[in-house]
């Protein structure tokens, strides 16, 4: 699913209005009906008080139109106009008139107004600012947000939480009204998925307001969401007359005294994603544990007992996963540097190998094209330098990816894969995965997928998606706290099978995100 900028959404609105020969008011009415249907389905006429806070632009217009439908269906409503500007939009005014015709008189809130009392069990609809926000709200509007949050009432945001920009990070938390749920028109927004801005809505859902499908299809975006629909087109089925040689030979290089588990995790997940053969290159101390734990893997040992000191290979791997549990001993750094200078095949670089490259940036020029780098935020910072905010981070990552022709897998709650000027935001995974070793599992998975012939970018997308999906399937049995990296490996099979499960039609009661 594509993630459009505000500018592109405005263009889609305009295009739709012209092509479908409708007025902007009719489009707003569609939006309001979708909002109403969503609420009505859940509330079934319940008399819980709904407080609708409306701005003076089209977001406010949506709120006023929703208020009218709620009133027509007998709901218990109170309407407020947050009067932050004299410049009211045409469709806002039209809908204000329609309310007045029904004898609904909104309360106008301004600087110095007394804030309305709201009970915890009541509902707040936030239609104050939409995607038209272009500067921080005035102090008094921020104070109103604070008041609304302090009531602890459920906040339902229309299109986007008010005060949240679509393409930058708000300077202060109090300038945004945090939402429990956001109903986003037509498409989700990138800000729902970034660490600094995702926290402003607990959940989100898209409401289809009938923007022109062809326009949306043909408009190119910098970012997209990665879900099953995006993954399936490049999934490669297993061929009947294939053999283990068809699916590549992966090599995991890593491990050091006390960190051999990382190699085990990576090797097992590499096998689980379907790599034909897997060999590990480790220091001697790992020989027995590795052979015992993973009978399917082959082992080559370094001359050193406790760390890697020189990488001499008797095999020609199809893909290499480099760095898990490797440590930063001096001899190791040199061995990795020498290895990279000679090696020309696809590589996944993780953990200490990333840190080594960050320390010796000259090594970047030896990375093969489309090397996959899998940094967590701290490792990313070492690679690309510090950033002002999440948007700056993404821009810097794009520049880095372009300059060094590498795929950056920025790990996090929503892992974002960057290749050149494009970003792909993952939708799977859960906080249970915030546990040691899950990153090693990901490295093994991406390596194993590349070994089978997936392009590095595709392998990163599929690997990240399946890794999170595996975590989501597994967590249903373990719960968040008990989830282990090993469980994520066991979930890889079910995650593959899940790719081909036909979605059950989600009933209105059950639907959530994605
Ligand atoms: N277009 C369509 O057909 C459809 C649109 N839809 C809805 O429209 C929403 C976008 O509406 P919108 O463009 O009117 O902007 P909105 O967010 O309501 O802001 C209003 C104005 O406030 C101003 N302003 C900005 N920041 C400010 C600040 N800090 N403090 C004070 N003022 C500030 C700024 O005007 P300015 O003062 O800069 O001229 C801005 O224009 C969208 O989110 C969706 O809900 C749906 O109905 C579907 C159909
Ligand atoms: N809150 C979360 N939600 C979803 N995925 C998460 C979350 N926290 C961590 N993960 C995933 O778990 C993995 C952690 O990797 P990493 O930090 O390298 O751990 P380690 O080095 O211990 O293996 C990443 O793939 C990341 O996306
Ligand atoms: K809003």
From TrEMBL:
Family: In the C-terminal section; belongs to the NnrD/CARKD family. Belongs to the NnrE/AIBP family.
Organism, scientific name: Euzebyella marina
Biological role: Catalyzes the dehydration of the S-form of NAD(P)HX at the expense of ADP, which is converted to AMP. Together with NAD(P)HX epimerase, which catalyzes the epimerization of the S- and R-forms, the enzyme allows the repair of both epimers of NAD(P)HX, a damaged form of NAD(P)H that is a result of enzymatic or heat-dependent hydration. Bifunctional enzyme that catalyzes the epimerization of the S- and R-forms of NAD(P)HX and the dehydration of the S-form of NAD(P)HX at the expense of ADP, which is converted to AMP. This allows the repair of both epimers of NAD(P)HX, a damaged form of NAD(P)H that is a result of enzymatic or heat-dependent hydration.
Domain YjeF C-terminal: 227-499
Lineage top rank: taxon: Bacteria
PROSITE patterns in alphabetical order: YJEF_C_2, YJEF_C_3, YJEF_N
Cofactor: K(+); Mg(2+)
Keyword annotations from UniProtKB, A to Z: ATP-binding, Isomerase, Lyase, Metal-binding, Multifunctional enzyme, NAD, NADP, Nucleotide-binding, Potassium
One Gene Ontology biological process: metabolite repair
Keyword Lyase: yes
Binding residues for (6S)-NADPHX: 58-62, 130-136, 159, 262, 325, 376, 440
The EC number(s) this enzyme carries: 4.2.1.136, 5.1.99.6
SUPFAM superfamilies for this protein: Ribokinase-like, YjeF N-terminal domain-like
Pfam family, one: YjeF_N
Keyword Lyase belongs to the record: yes
GO molecular function, one term: ADP-dependent NAD(P)H-hydrate dehydratase activity
Oligomer and partners: Homotetramer.
Catalysed conversion reaction: (6S)-NADHX + ADP = AMP + phosphate + NADH + H(+); (6R)-NADPHX = (6S)-NADPHX; (6R)-NADHX = (6S)-NADHX; (6S)-NADPHX + ADP = AMP + phosphate + NADPH + H(+)
Name of the protein: Bifunctional NAD(P)H-hydrate repair enzyme
Residues that coordinate or bind K(+): 59, 126, 162
UniProt domain YjeF N-terminal: residue ranges: 9-217
HAMAP family xref list: NADHX_dehydratase, NADHX_epimerase
């Amino acid at each position: 699913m594509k993630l459009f900028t505000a500018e592109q959404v405005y263009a889609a609105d305009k295009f739709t209005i012209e092509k479908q020969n409708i007025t902007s008011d009719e489009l707003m009415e569609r939006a309001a009906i979708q909002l109403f249907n969503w609420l009505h389905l859940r509330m079934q006429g319940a008399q819980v008080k709904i407080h609708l806070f409306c701005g003076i632009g089209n977001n406010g217009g949506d709120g006023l139109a929703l208020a009218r439908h709620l009133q027509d269906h007998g709901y218990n409503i109170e309407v407020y106009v947050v009067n932050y500007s004299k410049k009211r939009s045409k469709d806002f005014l039209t809908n204000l008139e329609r309310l007045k015709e029904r004898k609904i008189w909104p309360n106008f809130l301004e600087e110095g107004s007394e804030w309305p009392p709201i009970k915890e069990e009541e509902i707040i609809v936030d239609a104050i600012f939409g995607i038209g926000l272009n500067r921080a709200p005035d102090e008094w509007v921020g104070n109103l947000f604070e008041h609304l949050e302090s009531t602890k009432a459920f906040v339902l945001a229309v299109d986007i939480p008010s005060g949240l920009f679509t393409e930058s990070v708000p300077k202060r938390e109090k300038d945004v009204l945090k939402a429990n749920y956001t109903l986003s028109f037509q498409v989700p927004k990138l800000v729902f998925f970034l660490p600094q801005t995702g926290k402003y809505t607990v959940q989100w859902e898209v409401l289809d307001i009938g923007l022109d499908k062809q326009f949306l299809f043909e408009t190119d975006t910098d970012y997209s969401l990665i879900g099953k629909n995006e993954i399936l087109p490049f999934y490669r089925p297993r061929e009947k007359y294939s053999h283990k040689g068809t699916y590549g030979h992966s090599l995991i290089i890593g491990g050091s005294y006390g960190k051999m588990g990382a190699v085990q995790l990576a090797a097992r997940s590499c096998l689980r994603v379907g790599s034909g053969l897997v060999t590990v290159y480790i220091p001697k101390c790992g020989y027995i544990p590795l052979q015992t734990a993973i009978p399917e893997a082959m082992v080559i040992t370094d001359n050193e007992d406790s760390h890697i000191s020189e990488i001499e290979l008797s095999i020609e791997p199809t893909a290499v996963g480099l760095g898990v549990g490797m440590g930063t001993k001096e001899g190791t750094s040199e061995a990795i540097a020498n290895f990279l200078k000679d090696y020309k095949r696809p590589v996944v670089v993780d953990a200490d190998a990333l840190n080594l490259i960050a320390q010796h940036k000259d090594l970047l020029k030896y990375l093969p094209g489309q090397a996959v780098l899998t940094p967590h935020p701290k490792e990313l910072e070492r690679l690309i330098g510090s950033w002002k905010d999440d948007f700056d981070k993404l821009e810097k990552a794009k520049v880095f990816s372009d300059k060094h022709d590498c795929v950056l897998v920025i790990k996090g709650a929503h892992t974002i894969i960057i290749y050149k000027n494009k970003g792909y935001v993952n939708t799977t995974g859960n906080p249970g995965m915030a546990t040691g070793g899950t990153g090693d599992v990901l490295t093994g998975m991406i390596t194993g997928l590349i070994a089978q012939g997936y392009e590095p970018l595709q392998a990163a997308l599929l690997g990240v998606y399946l890794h999170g999906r595996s975590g989501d399937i597994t967590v249903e049995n373990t719960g968040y706290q008990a989830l282990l990296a090993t469980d994520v490996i066991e979930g890889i099979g079910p995650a593959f099978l899940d790719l081909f499960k036909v979605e059950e039609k989600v009933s209105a009661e059950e639907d959530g995100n994605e």
